[in-house]
Each structure stands twice: as C-alpha cells, then as structure tokens.
Amino acid sequence: MQIKIFESAKEYLIENFGNLVSAGEVYFDKRNNTWNVKIVAKTPHGIIPVGELLFDFNGNLIEAPTKETLLNILKTKLNLKK
Prior knowledge:
Layout: H1 2-17, E1 22-29, E2 34-43, E3 46-55, E4 61-63, H2 67-80
Antiparallel strand pairs: 1-2, 2-3, 3-4
C-alpha cells in the first residue's frame, strides 16, 4: 500500500504543482488511521519539507495544502536560512 500511496502522491503533486515540489517520506499514522506523505522542495539550500498530503486507509486523498500555502512555507524557510 505504501508504494501505491507514494505513486498517488507523486501524480497529484505533478498535476497540481508541476515541478515545484516532490513526494517525500511516506508513513502511516496509526492514531489518525491515515497515510501521510511529506511534500518537499528541492532548493540550492537542500531539500526542504514544506507540507504533507493525507490519504485515508484506502488510499483516497483527504487533505492537501494549497499552492499558496506551500510557497509561503518555502519562502519563510528560505528566509530563515539567510
């Protein structure tokens, strides 16, 4: 199931965000019964986590941040590295 979730996350991110971000680590949250996929941005400063996608137990996407949210997080983290 972990591979299916990762592939679904990659597809969703490409369709909705282009090459801005990539799917990162996938883990199952037993407490919430969800699959979580880290969203990462590759920058000259390294790979920076900028959010997460949440999938239900069956692999259906249930929560995703907006492009604006991801950009704001990335800008904030890059400014902290200066």
